[in-house]
Design goal:
With 374 residues, the chain is α/β, with parallel strands linked by helices. The chain has 12 helices and 10 strands. Strand 4, helix 6 and strand 5 form a beta-alpha-beta unit.
Length: 374
């Protein structure tokens, strides 16, 4: 049973089917001036239309990347001026901002509230009270949905604040796309990142939305692919898969969310009401983060794995480092609770029957593990 959809998702069969021809017979280079090349180019163009349609953009505002890490790096490293981001961002934003700071750029990190939400007033304060905020030009980067807590940020309000100071706004929408409407115009984003494998698409694919008129030079020197911003031979099959995943998400997002919320309410109620000392960290609706007092999150995850259930302790990126995740630290969660944290992230393939088994297993395992707690 797979409850780690925030780490990655199972590829939709329809996505695989769409990709297969481009991994086999239609293997042309999209720059080739012959039919095999034109076929690949046509497929890339179609994927661009599908991706643009999911986020309410124009096809020429979509730039295909190797994933959200690349999209975020391009956005932050290429934007002019200072940076303001939050302490609760994914490492591909936090560490990129820290890198930019180490090269002499002004950067400020806003603390989220106890639920992991970046409050508009905290962003205003960063503009008023930090050296970064007093810079003339810059980029605010705040994620749409937190990957560890599931908390949704008021991105449109944050974008308004950034714009009122003459800055640009970027959002990492990796955990939003396919779960909630992710429309660049409602968000008022200048830049937006999406990753394919969180959306039932292939790994190693993603996109950066760059609003028309925004100038971004790119990170690499090379050919003219993706209008020179992301040079290198296109991953045609991957791009086709991402396009198909976007097309499916556009049609099915609202039904997916309805189902995910139903399963999530059941899990929340099952755990919070029946296991004493359980708290939900953040207020996610499809990404759920719980702490169980006197239960070690890693032990619980390993025991669930032995039962054939995949969940995660915090974010997959901090796995293997027994360190408390920077996100849980940023919301001020006490160490004992942070150590007991478990992330359950629901996706479109999960069922209510699975949720019932999950809750039962966590009930019995937390009881068992507490016996050994000091
Ligand atoms: C919010 C968020 N942003 C960015 C990424 C990076 O995605 P990728 O590792 O596919 O580049 C992730 C992956 O976990 C994520 O959850």
């Amino acid at each position: 049973m797979y409850f780690d959809n925030a780490a990655t998702t199972r590829m939709d069969d329809r996505v695989l089917e769409a990709m297969l021809p481009y991994l086999k017979d239609a293997y042309g280079n999209a720059s080739g001036r012959y039919s095999l090349g034109y076929e690949a180019r046509r497929a890339v163009n179609e994927a661009r239309v599908q991706a643009a349609s999911l986020i309410g953009a124009e096809p020429d505002e979509i730039y295909f990347t190797s994933g959200a890490t690349e999209s975020n790096n391009i956005a932050l490293k290429n934007a002019e001026g200072a940076l303001i981001t939050s302490e609760a961002e994914h490492p591909s934003v936090v560490n990129t901002a820290l890198y930019c700071k180490s090269t002499g750029r002004n950067a400020a990190f806003v603390k989220p509230d106890v639920k992991g939400k970046v409050e508009p007033k905290s962003l205003e304060e960063a503009f008023n009270n930090t050296a970064a905020g007093r810079t003339k030009d810059g980029l605010v980067s705040v994620m749409f949905v937190n990957n560890e807590l599931g908390t949704v940020n008021p991105v449109a309000e944050l974008a308004d604040i950034a714009h009122s100071h003459g800055w640009m706004f970027h959002t990492d929408a990796v955990q939003a796309a396919g779960h909630i409407p992710t429309d660049v115009k409602s968000i008022k984003a200048d830049l937006l990142s999406i990753g394919g494998h969180k959306l039932y698409g292939p790994k190693g694919t993603g996109l950066l939305y760059i609003k028309r008129g925004v100038r971004i030079p790119g990170l690499f020197n090379g050919g003219s692919q993706e209008r020179g911003i992301i040079p290198g031979t296109e991953n045609v099959a991957g791009i086709v898969g991402l396009g198909k995943a976007c097309e499916i998400a556009k049609l099915e997002t609202s039904e997916n969310l309805r189902k995910e919320k139903e399963i999530s309410s059941f899990i929340k109620e099952g755990l919070l009401k029946t296991i004493p000392g359980t708290v939900q960290n953040g207020d996610g609706e499809w990404i759920l983060n719980f702490s169980f007092r006197k239960v070690n999150g890693t032990s619980l995850t390993l025991r669930l794995d032995m039962e054939g259930i995949c969940v995660s302790t915090g974010s997959a990126c901090s796995l293997g480092t027994e360190e408390i995740s920077h996100v849980l630290r940023s919301i001020g969660l006490e160490k004992a609770l942070a150590e007991g944290s478990l992330r359950i992230s629901i996706g479109k393939y999960n069922t209510m029957d699975e949720a019932k088994i999950l809750v039962k297993k966590i009930q019995s395992l937390t009881e068992e593990l507490r016996v050994f707690a000091v």
